[in-house]
Hints:
Blueprint: E1 5-6, E2 11-16, E3 22-28, H1 38-48, E4 65-69, E5 71-72, E6 75-76, E7 81-86, H2 93-96, H3 108-115, H4 131-147, E8 151-159, E9 162-163, H5 185-197, E10 204-211, H6 225-234, E11 243-244, H7 255-258, E12 262-265, E13 268-271, E14 279-280, E15 283-284, E16 289-295, E17 305-308, E18 314-317, H8 328-352
Helix pairs in contact: 1-4, 1-8, 4-8, 6-8
This protein binds flavin mononucleotide.
Amino acid sequence: MSGNSFGRIFRVTTFGESHGPYIGAVVDGVPPGLEISESYINEELARRRPGQSSITTGRREEDKVEIISGVIDGKTTGMPVTLLIRNRDVRSKDYESIRDVYRPGHADYGYIMRYGLRDWRGGGRSSGRETAARVAAGAVAKIILKEYGVKIIGYTRKIGRLEIESIDYSFIEENILRVPDREKVAQMINIIEEAKKSGDSVGGEVEVIVKGVPAGIGDPVFDKIEALLAHGIMSIGAIKSFEVGVGKRAAEMLGSEYNDEFINDGGKIKTRTNNAGGILGGITTGEDIVLRCAVRPTGSISIKQRTVDVHGRPREIEIEGRHDPCIVPRIVPVVEAMVAMVVVDCIMMRKALPPAL
Length: 357
Ligand SMILES: Cc1cc2nc3c(=O)[nH]c(=O)nc-3n(C[C@H](O)[C@H](O)[C@H](O)COP(=O)(O)O)c2cc1C
């Protein structure tokens, strides 16, 4: 099965199914001599795992990583780093009664059309569980980015139609929704709890700011950095849009409003505004990279839905099991991980292909 690897120099392959014994990632292109610890990766995994609060699923995945290759005495060797995460607390029984049914809003029908069979246990490979492996690989990318002074900050921008109006970075990890606006959290939790009460689900929006990326990172034409970021982010289950800078609002602006004027700020070239979101022509400008993506409402809902089974017979389905009424806060670290992988890969490409002698 292709489609399981991402990146050019910093290349990540994930493997494993939701209810198989393990999931994990093989990360190639990690420079030698880098100090990496399981505890840092575990901290990142804890931000993604379910069971963090009343609005996430009751499933308790321990999510402890084991580094099984590419590291000696706490330092990378330059060989592939393999990260293994054991799947605990799987309840495949919840899925037995619907193994032949196409769940609305899920990948089941597409997988059957593509492969002729599918791992029906917990969604198999299409499950959000796969993204734990991405978060582990992204943690390795973040360790490399730290060396370059690059910081990635992700948060929840919207739940349903309710949007933040202010940003306090220090508040993000202090609340269960990863919302940076203190005034909005209670209302947002309420929106999710209302949906949960009626067996329904809600979506929202994730925003990511990347600080400290130097100007001149990215490649032209097909590998523009925003194209790679879109690829990485759009490959996450449940993500339905990608925007950079002002995004689709650009369509309504005049050129004189959109263009970011350059200034010389004590010898450093900067822009007065950042409508372009830190990227021009696919190459970074040194301003913050600003990205946004829409998260659809969770597919698994307990409200009765009509569908068909693999024989085309009409069926009714009420999805049992432990599912999040809203996955937006858990997706924040996954988006950060994909952004980290892309930025590291682009920095490595910049080093591999210098512009002039
Ligand atoms: C971190 C994470 C957790 C997820 N958890 C669930 C879940 O509990 N229930 C669910 O129906 N979908 C969940 N998803 C989304 C599904 O994987 C996704 O919607 C499904 O495979 C269909 O793909 P699509 O929405 O990209 O078309 C999760 C996704 C991520 C990234």
